[in-house]
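If you are new to this repository, start here. Below is one unmodified record pulled from the training split, so you can see the exact layout before writing a loader.
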Amino acid sequence: MSDKQKTQTKNEARLDQYVTDFLDYLEIDRHCSRLTQRNYRHYLKRFGNWVFSQRPDFTMETLDLVTVTKYRVYLSRLETKPGMNLSRATQDYHLIALRSFIKLLIKRDVPTLAPEKIELGKSESRSLKFLTTEQVERLLSSPGISDERQLRDKAILEVLFSTGLRVSELVGLNRETIDFERREFGVIGKGGRPRVVFLSVRSGRWLKTYLAKRQDKGKALFVSDAGRLTVRSVQRLVAKYCHKAKLPV
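And here is the target side for that same chain:
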């Protein structure tokens, strides 16, 4: 192995150790979810792979704006599949991960580029669309109520609109977590933060009706024939009823 290759191997190992320390920090000090940790690991690994392909002698101490600019160009042109580039938001996630990583390095006295010098791309303009009261009622009334599956879909829509839960939180609920007398339950949200969620009288009633119709003894609050519902299955369910209710979103 040449001296150049030895230097690169040493620098790669050093960066890997920095990243490992950062992921430990996210878990222990920031209480980030495993998904967040996995995403940051992926973003930083992509940065490491790219930067050493460009600069074999790279260290975080030598990170500069020229390198960051070239990295942004790389992300902009990167095709994850033929003809498919990273979205603007995903490109920004890579830069956000890099900035957070740098902040910890500076906090631990590693001299490197100031994180505020890494700018994010201009976000794509998005206009919020709101449903009228009549449209919401149309959506909530779109499932039938004649069988267990229809009652499940009805309860899901009612609970989502009543509570503002994330779909990932909804599919993780179990039967025993619901206190019907107080119409409340607890969830663990982003960053492992617990909070109490309250049901409306109407959503609580439909949820009770659905559970009374259930024949299985499974612990999941919402199920399909295959078991606990997934995030994707709930997203498809909501999209189906939006289409059925002829909503503009």
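Two things worth knowing about this chain: The two ends are 59 Å apart (CA to CA). The beta strands are 79-81, 84-85, 184-188, 194-198, 223-224, 227-228.
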